[in-house]
Structures are given as C-alpha cells and as structure tokens.
Amino acid sequence: MVDVLSQNEIDALLAALSSGEMDAEDLKKEEVTRKVSVYDFKRAVRFSKDHIRSLIRIHENFARYLTTYFSAQLRTFVQINVVDVEQLPYDEFIRSIPKMTILNIFEAEPLEGRMVLEVHPNVAYAMLDRVLGGQGIAPAKMNSLTEIETTIMERIFARTFDSLQEAWKTVIDISPRLEALETNPQFMQVVSPNETIALISFSTKIGDTTGMINLCIPHVVLEPIMPRLSVHHWFVSQKKERIPEEVHILEQRVHKAKLEIKAELGETNITVKEFLELAVGDVLSLNKPIEEGLHVKVGDKLKFIGSPGTIRDRLAIQVDEIVSEGAAEEYDE
C-alpha cells in the first residue's frame, strides 16, 4: 500500500533537501534498491486481473438473480450486491468465517471438485424466521439447527443454485447440486489448506438485517475453463453447431412457409386521364418486346425468367432460367 505523507512531513522533507541534510541523489538510489517486492508462495497468484473482472461480471448477474429469487420467496425487501472478488488460501478463508455459520457444500458438473456458499448466520436465520412467518429478524443467540430447520435451510438454498446456473451460462453450462449443509467450518475440508481460491463476497440486506454471503470457488475447479474467463472469450462470438434434429425441424418449417410469386409481362406509363378512359379492346404498349422472357419474382426479388403459356385452359409460366444472386441488377437495367 502506498504511504501518504502529511503536509508537515512534506515540509520537513523539503527543508532537509534545501539545507543539504539530505541528498536527492541518495533518495533516487534508495528508490531503485527498493523495487524488489516480497512474494508469498502461500498466496500464489493464480487468477489474473482479467479473470477477476470476468468473475465480477458473472456474479453481478448472480446477485441480481438472487435478489429476485429471495424477494419472491421471503416477500420482503432484499438487496444483494457484489462487494469484492479476491484470491487467497483456503485456510485463510476458513479462519475468517464465524465458528457457527451456514455452509452449503455443492458440486457443479461438468466442473470437478466441490465449492462452498457460506451464508452469515444473521442472514440465514433472518431467512428462516421469514419463511416461518416471522418479521425476518435474526435471534441474538445462534443455536444449533434442528432437523426441521436444517431441512428448510436446504430447500431455501438448493433453489439458489438455479440462479448460479443462469449466471454462468455465458461461460459454461453447469448443473449445480447441493451436496451437504454444515454449520461448523472445522468439519469441512473442500481442498488442501494452501490451495488458492476465488472468494466472491456479497453484501446482503433482508429487511433490517444485514450480513455477508461468500462464494468459495477453488482454483483447481476453475482451472479447466480458465481460458473462457478471458476478455477474448467474452467478445468473440463462437459459431454454435446445430444438431441434426434441429436442422431437420428448421427445414420442415421453412418448407411450409408460404411465398408470393408473381410474373410481370412488362411496364408502361399512362396518365390518369388515359386510365379513366380505358375500354374493352384498348391496347397498352409495354416497355418490353414480346420475345423477351417474363420476370418471375418471389416477393420483391427477381428469381426466374420464364415464358407464358397455358395448361388445361389455365394460364401458366414455364421457368426457362434461374436468376443467380447479383444478376438481378442486370435484368433490372
């Protein structure tokens, strides 16, 4: 962290430089020698800034989905926002959460490994109280969950993984599934203590109760899809291959589509007076010789050149030529 000097320290430093007590060249040399940074192998950097930004985008959507879900379930004001995304050792995460908390351990196929959704007791008990018909106020003293309370908690949080699945759709289709619900972090060992995790923290407000929800995702779980968390993946559209069944259904629907086909003998221009005076037997001179083929249009596009005729005493057109793309302009001229 960069130290900020007070005004008195700045004045003292300038005075020392002016009086000659401190040499500016010595300061420059000292600055050069201090460009070595300490690296902690227990806190290895596994997620780049690019990865962190992608995780923020994904879980901002997750926070919006959770807000909608909990608002409908609890029928009260709910606000959930992403506060921070950081990387740290798993052991440090375990030591930072309360000894009595709600830990939802889950898997998300096809990703391999387990993840944790930790919910602060204030938030979890406020949800439980609200579901059971209360005001949504967390008790002053947190006791162990009864079997009935555990079952209710599992049902509440099992549905939250639908929101997680929706939020991750832009990267990968996952199928999160709740494996277990624990209350003591010491009994939960998801990965080794020194394994790097991505910790996504959400500030949560339910009515007048506030607390945190933390999502712990080990690096080993995300490692196979790390390239998908880059900016390149977000902005480059990938061509989706259609399965044969989809192609067959699409072809059937296209074949049933109705199109307007019309054959044009030619064009001419007359005045309104001439149009009003038209009578049976009058002849209109068109802008095209009789030996030239008729233009057959599908909608407003010229597609065929044909010859007029009759079939069983009905007017018909015989297709003589198929107009390729780009050739229509030559015929229009």
UniProtKB/TrEMBL annotation:
Coarse class of the protein's main subcellular location: other
Domain Flagellar motor switch protein FliN-like C-terminal as annotated: residue spans: 252-323
Pfam families: FliM, FliMN_C
Membrane topology designation: Peripheral membrane protein
Annotated compartments: Bacterial flagellum basal body; Cell membrane
Gene3D superfamilies, per the entry: CheC-like (3.40.1550.10), SpoA-like (2.30.330.10)
Official protein name in the record: Flagellar motor switch protein FliM
